[in-house]
Each structure stands twice: as C-alpha cells, then as structure tokens.
Amino acid sequence: ALFHSVSAFCNAGFSLYGDSLSRWAGNPAVNLVFMGLIILGGIGFFVMVDAGRLIAARFNPKTPNNTRRLTWYSVVVLQTSAMLILVGAILLFIVESMMRQADISLTSAVLTSLFQSVTCRTAGFNTVAIADLTNVTLLIMMGLMFIGASPGSCGGGIKVTTFRVLLAFVTTELRDREQVVIGRMAADRETVRRALALFAFSTIIITTAVLLLCITETGALPHGETRGRFLEITFEVISAYGTVGLSTGLTPALSPAGKYIIIALMFIGRLGPLLFIGALHTLQQREPFSRPEADLLIG
Q1: According to the 3-state scheme, what is the secondary structure of 242-277?
Q2: Per-residue pLDDT tens digits for 165-219
Q3: Angstrom distance (rounded) from CA 68 to CA 178
Q4: Element housing 185 (H / E)
Q5: pTM exceeds cut of 0.85
Q6: What is the C-alpha end-to-end distance of the chain, expressed in Å?
Q7: SS3 of 88, please?
Q8: Over the stretch 15-66, which tens digit does the pLDDT of each residue have?
Q9: Is 81 helix (H, G, I), strand (E, B) or coil?
C-alpha cells in the first residue's frame, strides 16, 4: 500500500503486480484512491499550496475577502485538467464500451474509462491491457499523454497550461481578436510565444524519435511485414517523452539501439522542456530595428 501510494502520487506508475492494477479494474475504492493521488501529484505543488491557503482562509474570519479565491493560474490548471480528464473518459467510454459493446457492467466501464483518462496524465498505471485497446483508443491516449500534467508537478508532457494557451491562441485567431483570453485574464505575448515554441520543440523531438525507431526496429522490411508496428512505435515514443510508462508491449522487444532511444526520450521529456524554456531566455535578443512587412500567400 505504501509503495503504490508513493508511486501514484509521484506519477511513477510502478506496480508490484505484472498486470499493473488490472485485478482491481472494477473496484471503486481502489480506483478512486489511485486517481485521487495521481491527480494531486499532477496538478503541481503551487496549486496544492494555493488550494491549502484558500481552505485555511475560509476558516479564518480575519482573512481579507480579496484573498479568498484561487489565483488565475490555479483556476486555469484545475479547469483544464478537469476538462481533459472528463473529455478523455467520455471518448474512451464511447469507443471501448459502446462501439465495441464490451460485456462488462456500466460501473466497471465508467471506472475503466475514467482511470485510463487519468493515468494518461503521465501516471503509467493501467486497469486494462493496453495491447487489447482499439487504435482509436490508443490515438486518444496519445493525445492525453502528449499534453501531460501541470508545471511544477510530478508529471511530464508539454503541460496543461501550454495546451490551454495554444487552444486559446487558435480561438483568438479564428475570432480575429488581439488578446489570448483565458478565463478572467489574458496570456501575455511572451507566454504565447513560449507555448508555440515548446509545442514545436516537442513535435520535432517526437517525430525524430519515431523516425529513428522505425529505422532501428523495422529497418528495410516492407510495409506488409510491419503492419501495426508504426502505431506501436508512436505510442511508445509519446509515452516515453511524456514520462508516462504505458506500453502496448513493444518495450521488451526493442533492439538495444531502440532502448537507448527510449532512455534518451525519457530523460529529454523530463528535463528537456524546462531546459528549452530556460535556453529561450538566454538566446532571445531583441533587434533594434524592424523589417518591412508584406503579405505572403499561405494555405
């Protein structure tokens, strides 16, 4: 119990059982405890401290009213995290339970869908065999793993705040607005630029890793002999970069070169985004002049 509690809160995903938590797939108590620990470890320490401050303020009548609410950052993290978990769970439930017409109870189907949506936040536990899931489910899980957890947390990925800024940026462009509005405030231009740069950096790293693994694991084999392997490789790469730990079963079958690539991805995925953002600050230099602007045909 102690080992699994630490593993869940730290989003490590290590289990003492070969099938992870599959034997407790229909147990509400075990699922809820694990999901609670995973979410707490993934929302970030700043949000936890902020929430603790808010709870303490509610019981202290002398606390000023203007401090009795969460910061804008905490609200964005909590709202975006809840949205991703609920949307992910609904999509997984539709695909795995309704489309496949799985012969399980409604409670077990809901728990399984919700748990898989939560664990994709870089926790790494699973209550179903990942290799038995449909391709659609794997694609949904890859998206959730790519986004990951929150800044300053135990999780990886590009972080929920990066995703929220990118989503708001797209909405802003579609509506032809000047500011990237998120809730009651707007993200500054520097934040938007960092989010776009981090998204591009992560996409390049993942694409490069998929290409390298395709070379090391499939080599010169024709496509007919490697059907399904591309999806498995992509899932493995995103899981490693997001420091999730989920796998379709490909990890033990990887070549030595492939395992080194996965090792490098896990290291880059944990430290790379932080180092990349820090490097941006040192490399950025404002030019003392502006170049002439002109329209460029795109699309």
Answers
A1: CCCCCCCCCHHHCCHHHHHHHHHHHHHHHHHHHHHH
A2: 999 999 998 988 889 999 889 999 888 988 998 899 899 999 999 999 999 998 8
A3: 31
A4: strand 185-187
A5: yes
A6: 55
A7: helix
A8: 999 889 999 988 999 999 999 999 999 999 999 999 888 888 877 777 666 6
A9: helix
